[in-house]
Each structure stands twice: as structure tokens, then as C-alpha cells.
Amino acid sequence: MLMERCIETQKGLYLCFIDYSKAFDKVRHEELFHILNSLGIDGKDLRILKTLHWKQTATVRVGGEHNEETPIAREVRQGCILSPDLFNLYSEMILRELDNIQGIGLGGHNINNIRYGDDTVLIAQSEQSLIKMLDIVVKESEIKGLSLNIAKTESMAISKKPQAPSCKIRSNGTQVKQANQFKYLGYLLTSDGKCETEIRKRIITSKTTFKKLSPLMTNRNIHMYTKKKAF
Length: 231
What we know:
The protein has 231 residues and is of the alpha+beta class. It has helices spanning 2-8, 29-38, 43-53, 83-95, 127-143, 196-217, 224-229; strands at 13-18, 56-58, 61-62, 65-66, 70-72, 104-106, 109-111, 113-116, 119-124, 154-158, 170-171, 174-175, 177-178, 181-184, 187-190. InterPro entries: DNA/RNA_pol_sf, RT_dom.
């Protein structure tokens, strides 16, 4: 929707896909619970979360012997359904510093970032605004104990023009790669703002899946209830 709006109104759209280095592993427990408390998380829920994360220890076994227990003062659990939401709240304090920077107007709201867990996209109408956003995010992330993996962080300029505009942004002296396409949360974004590539990919995936299920669906010896369960 953002891409369509910008292309229709002939406005610039500049994106930066942020990659945090070991994001979930670097969440500080004490800082996390301070943030949750400041956001008004219910006391009972907060105690449950503390029970899951607070005062854990780990040991390493070498040659059949364990070393001394080491306290775990950071990380949210990998694979836990709560972890993406907890990281969202943790990074909320970082991205609030962008509130006064103009992103894309949509429905009366200023949209300058989209995120789920550690998958974060910065959104701007100009290259200069995107550079400013990235500088703020890098600085505030370091304060919270997080660091960006610049080698995997990519930028993109979206335009109807045959040649995409330049998007030369740097972080701590390192050039951020400009991409012509990027897969975000399973959706393929392209610098021309079109969705044909993604549609073709989904059609091919659907055909492949249906072909695999065809022997099951056409087998008369298998009950219809079982066939429905396959979906």
C-alpha cells in the first residue's frame, strides 16, 4: 500500500532493511523489564515474564564435568512465541526517537518504520531523511546493547523510473548495500514498486504444491475428510 501510494503521487520512497546482529541474544533483562513497567504492563503479567527470564543460569559440560553456573543477564528465548513481541517492545524505545522525522503519510499517520520482531524497515521520502533515521537507530541501539550487522543491512529506492534513484547511505563509515529486490517477511519487494514478480512466484509455488497433493486428492480410496485435513 505504501509503495502504491508513493508511486501514484510520484513521491520518493526510500527503505532501509535493518539487520541486527544476534538481536534476541542481546536483549538486557533488566532494561527489558524496566521498559515493560514504563509501558504499563500489568503487574501479574510482568511477574510471569520475569519468572520465565529472570535469574537463569547456564553451565558448560567439558569431559563429563560441569563448570560453575553462570548467570544469564540477557536474551529472549529463541522460538518462544512471546519473543518477537518482547523484542518489539524493547526496540520501541529506540524507534520512538524517530517520531519527529517525516516518513510516509497514510490515513493521517506518519509511517516511518515497520517491524516485526527484529525485522525492521525504516521508511523515508528522501535519501537524507533515511540517513538521519539510520544514524539515530544506530546510536540508540548501541545504548540498548544492540548492534547492526551492516553487511546484511540493505537499502532500496523505489521508483517507476527505469533506473532506480541512487540511495547511498553509510553507517559508521561503512557503505550500506543498495538492493533492487528484497524479501521482507516472505514478500518480495522490488525497486520498480511492482508486484508481478511476487505474484508469479506465488503462482509457481501454488502449482507446485497442488501437483504434490494431486495423487492424494484424486485417490478414490482416501476419504474426503482426510483430503480436507491436508489443507
